[in-house]
Amino acid sequence: MPQVVLLCGGFGTRLSEETAVKPKPLVEIGDRPILCHIMNSYSHYGFREFVLALGYKGDAIKQYFLNYPYLQNDLTISTGEPRIVPATRPDVEDWTVHLVGTGLHTTTGGRLYRLRDRLRGGTFMMTYGDGVSDVNLRALLDYHYSQGRLATVTAVRPRGRFGALKLEGERVARFQEKVPAEDSWINGGFFVFEPGLFDYLEDDQAQLESEVLDRLARDKQLAAYLHDGFWECMDTLRDKKVLEELWASGNAPWIPAGRA
């Protein structure tokens, strides 16, 4: 199965109420960081090997996963002979998580560039560490293979304020970041890439959204997987509250059936 890259290095400045003390991917929705919600979505479809591209407060994410077996399991603590024994629960995820520092000020494309030696072996998936969706990730991968292009982006219809994808059928003709347009399709993350992507990444300052994806589109190498279902990006405190309300309702749209 392809590896899944999660970009976890940004400063999250528009969510500074939370990110002053923790990295954005560790901001909680309900009782778990949004990062784990995203990883659960991939895991549900069989993708269980993750490469986390770390930057801002990356040590906090390392600490979280170092303690993950204890945080997610019941514990038996022996005080006479100090030791802690996790009682493994059957619903705890079986993940392989690679935690890789990719620099504090590195761009999104630059983080992929710094991972190039890990990812040249074949197809890989990628998304950001702050967006949740009910997209069928296995269907996304199958669609990518059927298109025969270097990259596939999941196109979604958001509440607004993002950039637009200009489509010609199922192919992306232009990639325009942050150009609001009513009823437009926008970049929802949830990418699939072939190793040929690295021919478009010249260094660790490559701008994935404003440069690389548009070049792929112009070369007819960027396909669009159209997703009309749920998608939400936790960009601000208001967005977090929306996701919290959905979680509290007991019917969060991004939670796969049987995993709530």
From TrEMBL:
GO biological process: O antigen biosynthetic process
Alphabetized InterPro entries for the sequence: G1P_cyt_trans, G1P_cyt_trans-like, NTP_transferase_dom, Nucleotide-diphossugar_trans
Lineage: superkingdom: Bacteria
Ranges of residues in domain Nucleotidyl transferase: 4-232
Gene Ontology molecular function: glucose-1-phosphate cytidylyltransferase activity
UniProt keyword list: Nucleotidyltransferase, Transferase
Enzyme Commission code(s) on record: 2.7.7.33
Matches recorded under CDD domains: G1P_cytidylyltransferase
One Pfam match: NTP_transferase
Top enzyme class: transferase
Alphabetized NCBIfam families for the sequence: G1P_cyt_trans
PANTHER family: GLUCOSE-1-PHOSPHATE CYTIDYLYLTRANSFERASE, GLUCOSE-1-PHOSPHATE CYTIDYLYLTRANSFERASE-RELATED
Name listed for the protein in its UniProt record: Glucose-1-phosphate cytidylyltransferase
Organism of this sequence: Cohnella xylanilytica
